[in-house]
Amino acid sequence: MRVLNYFIFGFLLISSVACGGQKDQVVTIETKYGNIVAILFDDTPVHKSNFLELAESGRFDSTEFHRVIPDFMVQGGDVFTKEGMPSEEWPTLPAEIRTNHFHKKGAIAAARQGNNINPERRSSGSQFYIVLGEIYTELELTADMPKLQSAFMQYVQLGSQEALRNEYSRLYAAQEFDSLTHLLLSKRAEIEESLNLKLTKDLTKEEIQAYTTVGGTPHLDDEYTVFGEVISGIDVAEKIAMEERGPRDKPLNPVYMKVSVEKMSRKKIEKEYGYTYPDGE
């Protein structure tokens, strides 16, 4: 993410979650388009505790969704700019990147600075984003595109592949980049067999199911901490993403938020929102 934004630390674990796991905190983000309701994950405890602390103290209130991109994400919660804190003093959180949490549509993740100045992938101390994303075919999803591109360029140098090389050159000259991508994908299995290479990524059944049905942003996986999930109101986030934008993808008409927290039994959460807690939680 191209953001320079961050988070304050809060290391308290929530006693009601720790005691028997019978209750959880339901987060409601109120906007002019309606409410977004979410739960936060227990196995990202620093991020969960921090977010709840900011919400319960009212510090998120009157912050904006300040960066919105259709079919990608909506980002907000810039507490420290609102409070006038110098950017060099913005707190960060240690990364809590878990392989069981990925960027499917509705995922809530922490913004952060880029790897060039943040190799530890520490999270912003307040800013978060809600994933929208796109639906992928399984072929698109499982292809290791950097490796495939490199192997394709090697493959088309073979004398037997002159026609393929010419087709690639034609599409490139015409800047038909979607067609170029389809061309590469269509040749993946052929190139794998010819060059004896593996050009696929290993994804779980859950990832493939999610990204090929509800969608998401898989290229962000393993790079940002996913610490929550929208359980109601993803359509509200989609409406926010459609706002007319100015520089830096900021809505021309501000979209403010007010964030509240309600303790609720997990059984009630499952019944009211259709959310299923993972086994063992």
Tell me what the CATH architecture of the largest domain is.
Beta Barrel
Overall residue-averaged pLDDT value: 92
State the low-pLDDT regions, or none.
1-20
- How would you describe the shape? elongated
Q: Any idea what the radius of gyration is? A: 21 Å
CATH topology of the largest domain: Cyclophilin
Give a quick rundown of the structure.
The protein has 281 residues and is α+β, with helices and mostly antiparallel strands. It contains 11 helices and 10 strands.
Characterization of the model:
By secondary structure, the chain is an alpha+beta fold. It has 2 domains: 15-135 and 213-273, Cyclophilin-like (Cyclophilin); 144-200, no CATH class. Helix content is 32%, strand content 19%. It has 11 helices and 10 strands. Strands 3-4-8-6-9-2-1-10 form an 8-stranded antiparallel sheet. It has a two-stranded antiparallel sheet with strand order 5-7. Helix 5 (145-155) packs across helix 8. The protein is elongated, with a radius of gyration of 21 Å. Mean pLDDT is 92; it is low at 1-20.
Topology, element by element:
Layout: H1 15-18, E1 23-31, E2 34-40, H2 45-56, E3 65-69, E4 73-76, H3 79-82, E5 92-93, E6 107-110, E7 123-124, E8 128-131, H4 138-142, H5 145-155, H6 162-173, H7 177-186, H8 188-195, H9 205-211, E9 226-232, H10 234-241, E10 258-265, H11 266-273
Antiparallel strand pairs: 1-2, 1-10, 2-9, 3-4, 4-8, 5-7, 6-8, 6-9
Helix pairs in contact: 5-8
What attributes does this structure have?
single chain; Cyclophilin; 2 domains; 8-stranded antiparallel sheet; two-stranded antiparallel ribbon; 10 strands; elongated; disordered N terminus
